[in-house]
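Thread: "does anyone have the structure for this chain?"

Original post by V.I.:
We have the sequence but no experimental structure in hand. Need at least a predicted one for the grant figures.
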Amino acid sequence: MSDPADYRAGFRTQREEIDDEPLPVDGTFPDWLSGDLIGNGPGQFEAGDTALRHWFDPFAMLRRFRIDGGEVTYANRFVESRDYAFARDRGGVRTPFPGTPPDRPLWTRLRQILEGTFPDNPVIGVQRFGDELAAVTESPTALTFDPGTLETTGRIDLAAGLDSDLTLAHVHYDGDEDAFYNLGVEYGRDTVYTLFRRPGDGGEPTPLTRLRFDEAPYVHSFAVTDRHVVVTVNAFGLDAGRLLRGVVTRETFLDAFRPLDAPLRFVVLDRSTGDHVATATAPPAFVYHHANAYERDGEIVVDLVGFDDERAVTGLALSNLRSDDPDLPRGDLRRYTVPLSGGEAASETVYRGPVEFPTINYRAVNGERHRYVYLAETDGDSSLPTDVTKVDVEAGTIRRWRESGTHPGEPLFVPAPDADDEDDGVLLSVVLDPEADRSRLVCLDAATLDELGRAHLPHRLPFGFHGQFYGHDAPGRSMA
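Reply from O.Q.:
Generated one for you, tokens below.
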């Protein structure tokens, strides 16, 4: 086993589950900060004797930090998906994971592909559906949970009412409309992305438009402005034939992922009607996450983290991430300027990475002109981030928070009450300390990146993906 006192501790299983334990706190969490930070991410990296192969494969574990009056309590629990139950009870992989084939007979694998069976292991993030919270991934299934106990309580069919096989894990919430925007995905002879609107109470979706592609491009997230939706269509996607042959050959999504004979495309849609407005192109690139987008003078400015090639996906194989010399794909914070008349989108590198997990003051500036982007940055030979970085995209200045030997996760912005400035608030980040074999929740001043307080967990958490902060007076912020 790898020495636990290094970044590889972020890719090791943690089976211990804890119920609502008060955490020791150094420094202070602001008195106004009140609510639940709920994160999601890998918890178990094996299915019986089968080692899972890709970072998107491990079984989902929720982590909840309840903050009130400067005190912090903590709970964590595995999501009781059918995939997790199968691994626990039968010691195998139930459905085709992104990098790991199912441990099932050939006839079962054939039935799964014919019936369109997708994993229900919701490892990416958290969404609100009316009064319920749910763990989500790129799947037709969301699993609801009790925010107090984190126990799994039910299932939601996210594709109901849509001609789609699955929906994306990254949605946008509009507080004025009390509605969510998202994309459904349908695989077949063509690949179809359906833009839809869902009411905030979790009701029936309203399809707005369908985007059809001859190839199978991969889309992980998208951007919105006041009037438009920008679907960023990657220049990389799936070899559908190879994916189908994988039923027999046991090849996976990871094996079938490839460059497409296409540029990076920005498809601009009218947000109210779904009507096509423009399509602009740029040199091939891959995008997981958008920071923000806004309109100005006949164009849309899109800030995102862009990668040069398919290693953004294939480079996240766990064998690479755990290696002594990982070949880490480098994402840069890039700005694309997309003309509303179509044509070519200009691009510039705002900040050179490796960076990922971009966040903003979502409630204040999503879809509008923004000044600050917060990122998790990786410096050195680690597979995991080493810094929380704040980029002032107008002034070009940089601030960083770093603690030697530790690995901060996604920096979640929580605005202060009655804030006047865009960066008036705090950042919350779960930080892994491999040497101590512990994690901690760190609270930073979002303006200065000075540390305000930290809460010490009783154990180490594997490195997580995405979370939400649900305050008592706000519906939470959704990450693009």
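V.I.: this helps a lot. Residues 267 and 279 are 5 Å apart (CA to CA).
O.Q.: and The longest strand covers residues 286-296.
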